[in-house]
Give the backbone structure.
Amino acid sequence: MEIRDRIFIDGRWVKPSSDDLIDVIDSDTEEIFAKVARGTAADANRAVEAAKTAFESWARTSADERGKYLLRINEGILARMNEMSETISKEVGTPLGLSQFIQVSIPASTFSDMSTRASGYEFEETIGNSRVVKEPRGVVAAITPWNYPLHQIAAKVAPALLAGCTIVLKPADLAPVNAYILADIIEEVGLPAGVFNLVTGPGPEIGEAMVTHLDTDMISFTGSTVVGSRIAELAAKDIKRVALELGGKSATVLLEDVFDGGELQAKAISDALFWCYLNSGQTCIAQTRLLVPRSKLSEIEDRVAEETAGYTIGSPFEPTNRVGPLVSKKQQDRVKEYIRIGKEEGAKLLTGGDEMPEHLDRGYYVKPTVFSEVDQNMRIAQEEIFGPVLSVIAYNNERDAIDIANNSSYGLSGSVWSSDNDHAIEIAKQIRTGQVEINGGMFNPTAPFGGYKKSGYGRELGKYGLEDFLEIKSLQLP
Ligand code: NDP
């Protein structure tokens, strides 16, 4: 069993102030496969102080120099691809093939993408008689979730480092081992002491200590809306910068003309299911509401049920499986509870359900589940379930479809399908979310990523992600 009983502060692996350890559970076998340090608020404070001390000299290094470190971190992650992806598949339950791509390659590319911005980004510009300089915000507290653990870490650490910030990272207790591997890599590439610090332990204790520490300048958080709101409240007292990437309840909108024949209909339904069941639905941009013309409802029900049957469920290490377990027993119980709520609310259960898949007797599994005849105001259509549960909702006309898509306290993502691309874009512009996929347009890890409404604020990834970590100063020249 892997034991990581140290935390990474000021360039060294140090003993935390408590001897307690956190069990890390394999979501398929339900067995403990690793233990990590349970740090305390005192450790978080130590880490912030190290980051504060390191900031002065790190902020003065050139962007080129910082970019070179990022490239070496990218290479270090790719060199440990197998270890990293297997670890995340155990922690989170992501099927291994997907893990290699989404959980490891994409975050690795975030580091290389940021390294290219060292020369490609204008850290200075001239406006009239002013030289506008972009400077690092300072010490960043990065608090990350378990669903795409390395991706969320990379989306914060890579731009923060390039900007010249120093960092204290607190990863989720459910999936912390990948963050230890990253810290190993960061140690190997020789990042100056204190620039990156890792503390593991309970969010309410460590996370809040990081957020409230007077030397923390910015908090970058991904996770639940409840915790995001708590962080914003704590940070407001000292007017700290906050970036929040929170939950979602995204809609796939199939416009009437998708059903004019041809392949578009099949492609649209496949894509909608992919984005709903990806990572067992534990995806903030999961498209968990499928909006379809009322006249096509029964036809779509048949196709959705049939295609869902093709989502084989089981061990993430069996290549034919497309759906793995959920991350934890708590998450499994929560998703099963939502399935019961859906039945009680009177939605029509098309396929799936809250029972364990027949061929499995352990692991935190929930079958891909589809409800139809869902009313847009039901809890299953409003609340983030974070499991493989789809709500099919019928609409009467395009205006109705847009209103239903926008009838959500969240605003993270969505998609629009139409045989007319331009028309799909017109509809997408009326959807109040941070990103909308048009006719299967691919996720772009260099485009800005973030939410409207209760999905948060700030943008991650690419140029806009870098700018979240920069202050802007005007030097008025004579
Ligand atoms: P949380 O928001 O509780 O956890 C995310 C991170 O915040 C973790 O590192 C956690 O630490 C930390 N944290 C928890 N409480 C505090 C606090 N008071 N102050 C500072 N940091 C804190 O998400 P959960 O893991 O509990 O998941 C619950 C639900 O949240 C999911 O079912 C899903 O709906 C949503 N969610 C959304 C995500 C997204 O990508 N938008 C990602 C994850 C969850 P620790 O691990 O120690 O608790």
Notes: Residues 143-147, 170, 172-174, 202-204, 207-208, 222-224, 227, 230-231, 245-247, 284, 384, 386 surround NDP (CB under 6 Å).
